[in-house]
Structures are given as C-alpha cells and as structure tokens.
Design brief:
It contains 16 helices and 26 strands. By secondary structure, it is of the alpha/beta class. It folds into 3 domains: 93 residues, 3-Layer(aba) Sandwich (Udp-n-acetylmuramoylalanyl-d-glutamate--2,6- Diaminopimelate Ligase, Chain: A, domain 1); 229 residues, Mur-like, catalytic domain (UDP-N-acetylmuramoyl-L-alanine:D-glutamate ligase, 3-Layer(aba) Sandwich), CATH 3.40.1190; 149 residues, Protein-Tyrosine Phosphatase, Chain A. The structure holds ligand UAG, adenosine-5'-triphosphate, 2,6-diaminopimelic acid (API) and magnesium ion. Pathway: Cell wall biogenesis; peptidoglycan biosynthesis.
C-alpha cells in the first residue's frame, strides 16, 4: 500500500468544509472507511451506510490509530475532525490528495454500460500490453497490475481503494490503466478524484432497477462518466455505441470529443461483412477512410461491438491499427464469458456470466444459432437485486431454448423458491423444471443432454461462490459441470 505524509490541511484543499475541530496540521499517512482496516496514522471517513453508520465506529477507528476523522456531524472524540456535507462524495478527492493524484500520472480509461465492460477492459489491457506498455486493470474479476492479480469484491471498488490501486500502479510503472465503472460507482462517488482520458459506453438495457428505480436515472448515472471528461491532461474522448438508443443523450452529455462505433448506423468505426461462427466473429471495420479485417475468438453478435469499441479506442489513441487487430486476434477469451467445458462429451457445455435480460438473450440466441440438437438452459436470478428482470429473463430463455432448468443464483437474503416462482411467471411455451439446488440442476442437465445438444449455464460465469443469506459458499459452475461430466464417465482432460 502506498503511504503518505501530508497534513490534514493539505488533504482537504478543494473540499467544501462546513466546520472543523482540533489541529488540522496533524500528519496523515493513509485513509480508510472501515474501522476494521484502519492503520495507525489513517484518516477515517465516517460513512452513513445503507446498513450501518460509520460514525458509530469512529471511536474504534481512533483506538486502532486513526489520527483524524471526516464526518457529517462532529463527534465527541479527541481527534481533529472535518465536517463535510457528504462524506461518500468527497472520499475519492481526499484519497486522491493523499496519494498524489495517481490518475493524473497515467492514462486512464473508464468503461461503462450494462453488459460488456469486463470483456472490453480485457481487450484494452491486451492492446496496451501488445504495444509494450505496463497495464493496470480494475473490474469485476478483481484488479491486475502488470499481470499480478489482486482479488476484489465488486465491479468498481470503493473510492479510497480505487485511489490506492491507482497509486500502486503508478509506483509500479504502469502507464495505462483501464477500469470498469459501474452505475453504482458513478452515483456513490467511487470514481471521484479520477481523471479519465477516455470513456467507453457499451450499451444500456435493463438491470439494477432496485437501485436506480428508472431507466432514466440509470442512464443519467452512466452519462456522468462522459459529462466529467474534463481536464487538460490530454485531449479526451468518449467512445459511444452508435447503435444504442442511449447514444444521442450520451453524445449531448459528453464534455469530450465523441467517437462512435456500430453496425447499423453510420459510425466513425463501422463493422461490415459480419460473420458469426461457433469459434468467434469476423468482420471488416471501416474507419477514417481505411478498412481492416478483424477476428475475435468469442462467438455472438455482441462480440462485434466489444471488439469494435476496443479497436476504436486503440486507433484513436494513436496505436497501429494492424497491431490492435493482432491483439484482438490473439486474445483467447475472458474467464466465464462463453467459456466451453470440454471433457470429450458429445454435447457442448458453455458457462456464461449473462445475468440481465439482454445479456441472456444474446447468449441463448448465439448458442441457439450453432446448436444442431436441443438447447438446455440452466439459470436463475440473484436475490436482493432488481426483481423486475426475473420474468424478463424467464421469457427470453424460454423463447430461444428447448428446455429450461430454472435454479438459484446467489439467493442472498431472499427465498430461492420465491425467486424461481417470479422467473417462471415469464416462462411459457417451453418445457422446464425448477431445481433450486444449482449443483443438482447442472447434473440433471448433463444427464439429459444427448449428442449435438448444448447446455448453457448462465448467470455466474467466473464466480466461485454461491451466496445464501449472508454466507458465501464455494461454488463454481465450471467445476460442477466438470464434476458432473466426470460422473457420467467423460474423462478427457479439459482442453
Ligand atoms: C449499495 C452499495 O453499494 N453498498 C455498499 C456500501 O454499503 P453500505 O453503505 O451499506 O455500508 P455499511 O455496511 O452500511 O457500512 C457503512 C460504513 O461503516 C463502515 N463500518 C462498518 C462496520 C464496522 O465495523 N466498521 C466500519 O467502519 C463501513 O466500512 C462503511 O464505510 O459500502 C459497503 C462497504 O464498501 C459495500 O460493501 C456495499 O456494497 C454492497 C456489498 C453491494 O452489493 N454493492 C453492489 C450493489 C454494487 O456496488 N454493485 C456494483 C455494480 C455491479 C455491476 O453492474 O457490475 C459494483 O460496482 O460492484
Ligand atoms: N456488448 C455486449 N452486449 C450484450 N451482452 C453482452 C455484451 N458483452 C457481453 N455480453 C453478455 O453479458 C455477459 C457479461 O459480460 P461482461 O462481464 O463483459 O459485462 P459487464 O458489463 O462487465 O457485467 P457486470 O455489470 O456484471 O460487471 C457476458 O457473459 C455475455 O453474456
Ligand atoms: N454485478 C452484478 C452481478 C450479478 C451476478 C449474478 N450472479 C447475481 O448474483 O445476481 C450484480 O451485483 O448485480
Ligand atoms: Mg464486469
């Protein structure tokens, strides 16, 4: 972890401070929002949370060595304190001040949108590496600094962790960082203090309405990445999906030059002659008066968009189109995204992270296209998440599959049976079975599959756990599928 040596007065410069108490010349060495992780010398940020109030843990933070507090109400504690209107919204700026504004010392790319963020960050990482750069990545699968993995819990970490990670990247000589920026992150100030050089928009379809309430609010949250593309580090760009209905609003919101990509509409980077095969996508990209052939080894029409977005970013940043295309051709797939499990069985088993109606529709249609036999789809919906997407996911799965095995996907504090019933209200015109135990559902699918069938196991992708209540149990769709296939006598080494 980077350590700092700054006075509280220096750290709060540029922040609206309503009141303060104690000696603001106190030296701060780091920052934390969690009393359980406070290190001696830290500034502790008291965040009124969704579950508990961080102010209630300030005394414990001080006992662990916190030397100052950021608060929304002054506390009867003998440490210097600064009072601000909203702690969550200023944490990123404070942390950026503490860790020397790391995002200003490297090139930072933010990727937002409902689906495709993780995939595009992987493509950009690969393009950067191919051009000889040290690259940093932050996202759903954790962070990576020059190839070293650091586990993470969420798509976009909390503001302080984002600044710490970027600080570590700078210390290790990273010159390009790419980061997934979730809508939660944009609303909850997790990327405050980040100066982005480019923003990439993938698409906007239904998800997270439990949090954002309406699609307009969800879009507004996403638009903030592009509206904030200001600053004078270098010319900034917004790379937007021209085929998405949200394009026009995002174009208007963007503070930076807009570059569009797409298939259907005239776009700065436009794919033509698209061929979708069982192995991947092939197309020609027309851009700036030039044409280039692209091969990207992930099937599905949506893969064209992901490859186009990454290509457009690379070329706009001045990288050689030829080497960008080579990088895309070399990438062998993102864990848990259309990942094939092969133990010599005469049917396909695919594990994919689709967990929204649009994501699921895309993968079931892709699997449908190359399945000669039946398509058996195993899926569920997360608990304590947008409930309204459940029947919609049931509907799209039913429309394109031959048989559904509706099961559990991180029920969290909800009743798994009730989640399944809500999914089933959208299911019609297809045979299905409800099996709450996901392991049993995967085994059943493997037992039912005949030669030339496809089993699609959707929703958890790379996840290595299943959450019941607040307990996290080990569970990996890929491992369970292998276990079931071995149980059925298929023993070939996975290829
Ligand atoms: C809605 C949301 O984002 N909630 C996050 C938020 O929770 P919270 O505000 O309720 O925190 P809290 O538990 O009430 O605690 C309040 C404060 O007291 C502190 N505390 C608490 C206990 C203690 O002993 N000491 C202490 O200091 C906590 O560290 C915190 O600062 O802050 C917590 C601490 O960082 C997060 O774990 C929690 O994420 C939850 C787990 C979550 O599920 N978030 C999801 C919805 C999310 O953010 N998803 C997005 C999008 C996903 C995508 O589309 O890819 C993501 O970016 O991952
Ligand atoms: N461009 C796309 N359009 C629609 N669906 C996509 C696209 N790219 C990927 N998908 C589907 O969405 C799933 C999730 O993809 P990915 O992990 O790249 O998205 P994400 O935006 O990072 O998701 P999350 O919000 O959970 O971080 C994939 O497994 C695939 O099924
Ligand atoms: N980033 C998404 C991931 C959902 C993955 C799915 N397996 C689930 O748990 O609902 C979320 O937190 O809503
Ligand atoms: Mg992601």
């Amino acid at each position: 972890m980077p350590t700092a040596n700054k006075s509280l007065t220096e750290i709060i410069s540029g922040i609206e401070v309503q009141a303060s108490s104690g000696d603001c010349q106190v030296i701060v060495r780091g920052m934390s929002m969690d009393s359980r992780q406070v290190q001696p010398g830290d500034l502790y940020a008291c965040v009124p949370g969704f579950k508990v109030d961080g102010h209630d843990f300030a005394a414990s933070a001080v006992a662990s060595g916190a030397v100052a507090l950021v608060v929304e109400r002054l506390l009867p504690l003998e440490v210097p304190q600064v009072k601000v209107p909203n702690v969550r919204q200023v944490m990123g700026t404070l942390a950026a001040n503490i860790y020397d504004h790391p995002s200003e010392q490297l090139e930072l790319v933010g990727v937002t949108g409902t689906n495709g963020k993780t995939t595009i960050t992987y493509l950009i990482e690969k393009i950067g590496i191919k051009h000889g750069k040290k690259v940093g990545l932050i996202g759903t699968l954790g962070s990576r600094i020059d190839g070293r993995t650091i586990p993470g819990d969420r798509t976009t970490p909390e503001a302080i962790d984002v600044q710490k990670l970027l600080g570590e990247m700078v210390a290790e000589g990273v010159s390009l960082a790419v980061m997934e920026v979730s809508s939660h992150a944009l609303v909850l100030g997790r990327v405050a203090g980040c100066e982005f050089d480019a923003g990439i928009f993938t698409n906007l379809t239904q998800d997270h309405l439990d949090y954002h309430k309406t699609m307009e609010d969800y879009l507004y949250a996403k638009s903030r990445l592009f509206a904030d593309l200001k600053g004078d580090k270098q010319p900034k760009i917004s790379i937007l999906n021209g085929d998405d209905p949200a394009f026009e609003k995002l174009r208007q919101a963007s503070a930076a030059t807009v570059v569009s990509y797409g298939i259907h509409n005239s776009a700065d980077y436009r794919a033509e002659n698209v061929e979708v095969t069982t192995e991947g996508v092939r197309f020609q990209v027309h851009f700036r008066g030039a044409v280039r052939d692209i091969w990207y080894a992930t099937p599905g029409f949506f893969s064209v968009y992901n490859a186009l977005a990454a290509f457009a970013w690379g070329v706009e940043r001045g990288y050689s189109p030829e080497i960008v295309a080579e990088a895309l051709a070399e990438i062998s797939g993102v864990p848990g995204r259309f990942e094939s499990i092969r133990l010599g069985q005469p049917f396909q088993v695919i594990v994919d992270y689709a967990h929204t109606p649009d994501g699921l529709e895309n993968v079931v249609r892709t699997a449908r296209d190359f399945t000669k036999g039946r398509l058996l789809t195993v899926f569920g919906c997360g608990g304590d998440r947008d409930r309204t997407k459940r029947p919609l996911m049931g509907e799209v799965a039913a429309q394109w599959s031959d048989y559904l095995l509706v099961t559990s996907d991180n029920p969290r504090t909800e009743d798994p049976g009730q989640i399944i019933r809500e999914i089933l209200t959208g299911v019609s015109g297809v045979d299905y079975v409800a099996i709450a135990d996901r392991r049993e559902a995967i085994w059943s699918a493997c037992r039912l599959a005949k030669p030339r069938d496809t089993i699609l196991i959707a929703g958890k992708g790379h996840e290595t756990y299943q959450i019941f209540g607040t307990e996290v149990h080990p569970f990996d769709d890929r491992e369970v599928a292998r276990e079931a296939l071995r149980g059925l006598g298929y023993a070939q080494l996975d290829s």
